Amino acid sequence: MSLYPRPSFLAPPEAWMTAKASLALTSTRSSLGMAVDGGYGDTGDWEGRWNHVRKFLERSGPFTHPDFEPSTESLQFLLETCKVLVIGAGGLGCELLKNLALMGFRQINVIDMDTIDVSNLNRQFLFRPKDVGRPKAEVAAEFVNNRIPGCNVVPHFKKIQDFSESFYRQFHIVISGLDSIIARRWINGMLISLLNFEDGTLDPSSIIPLIDGGTEGFKGNARVILPGLTACIECTLELYPPQINFPMCTIASMPRLPEHCIEYVRVLQWPKEIPFGEGVALDGDDPEHIQWVFQKSLERAAQFNITGITYRLTQGVVKRIIPAVASTNAVVAAVCATEVFKIASSAYIPLNNYLVFNDVDGLYTYTFEAERKENCPACSQVPQDLQFSPSAKLQELLDYLTQSASLQMKSPAITATLDGKNKTLYLQTVASIEERTRPNLSKTLKELGLTNGQELAVADITTPQTVIFKLHFTT
Ligand SMILES: [Zn+2]
């Protein structure tokens, strides 16, 4: 059996029923001579409109899925039934919407919580100067709907966290073009929470594939996630390292790059010389501040014969700006859209399952199979173990949750059931509760009344679901 059964993980059966029913309807109509060109007569289509797509779907080829049978149904499904959700209407999102709409996807929803900034216009090509300040999702949807007849993009100027399970359940495929790892982890957790298990066996019709694209400067990646079947975002969380900082010894004693000199001024000289008075923090948007750092960095660079410091680079380093590159977005979005097409049509075997792209130096692509993690906190259904000594303080446990490479939580809230009552041990996000529970951090686990085998429920912004940990005391 192939790794990717066809098409069981895709459309819930009722969706296929709808597709088939509408197909029957249109074929009746075309036999009455009311429709042209394969019977899509009332969908705004003109003769030959989908000829290019039909070449992939209505004939066999060396790369088609082993179970693929050419037919007109796939195109029908794609045009009329398949419902996709695009998360993010920025650099990747604009490309994705354009690609999907031109491929024939018509039931598209897009979520983005941002408004358009003038600095987006060089690459987010669905936006114009007159749109600055308006929600990205709305403008992108208007543009695509106006430009591509029959396409119905529904915009949502919201956060992904504003929607519930029932909203996400309506889609066949979710595509994310996000710049936030937290949001990626959250949608990953949401799609996993939609999985149905019957007697421990995954019901394939509950799987909503997630196609995830990401870019950073000249580097990018695209991946296909079949929640519950293949590696999820949390399975490979170690691939997202914490933000890299330059080693302090390099900055202080042997700078080699212009960036090292700017970091030296930012980290060491600014707090020492307090150029704008006591307590004034370096503001990356204040031209006078950047000008000061720029001049000092030039002096530092001159001592070490380093060149290449500019005002622009100075601001980039201070504000940790990674420039967005339009061509990287185009490549990654094209890969993602191709995967959506492959999965939606079931005509081709999807990417298995992770592609990296890099054109920093020449051009490089590589594909590998990211593996599922046996004890993945999101998709494994295995309780998470925490090994601590009874004399460990709650603070140590909290540090582990935030610092461990496989968890990387942001502001975990920890609760436990003690004497039959739910007790919040620590919660950071509400100031009054934080204040009340802060003393717990310096107490030991034993002092808090926790026992060996105790379950701890941990909530965090990185997941829509509470993660259950089991506490194991070490001796
Ligand atoms: Zn996982």
UniProtKB/TrEMBL annotation:
Catalytic residues in the record: 249
Molecular function GO terms recorded: ATP binding; NEDD8 activating enzyme activity
EC number: 6.2.1.64
GO BP terms, alphabetized: protein neddylation
UniProt-listed Pfam families: E2_bind, ThiF
EC primary class: ligase
GO CC annotations, alphabetized: cytoplasm; nucleus
Pathway assigned to this chain's UniProt record: Protein modification; protein neddylation
E2 binding domain sequence ranges: 386-474
Catalytic reactions of this protein: ATP + [NEDD8 protein] + [E1 NEDD8-activating enzyme]-L-cysteine = AMP + diphosphate + [E1 NEDD8-activating enzyme]-S-[NEDD8 protein]-yl-L-cysteine
Xref: SMART domains: E2_bind
Keywords: ATP-binding, Ligase, Nucleotide-binding, Ubl conjugation pathway
Alphabetical list of CDD domains matching this protein: Uba3_RUB (cd01488)
Entry keyword Nucleotide-binding: yes
Superkingdom of the source species: Eukaryota
Family stated for the protein in its record: Belongs to the ubiquitin-activating E1 family. UBA3 subfamily.
Name the record gives this protein: NEDD8-activating enzyme E1 catalytic subunit
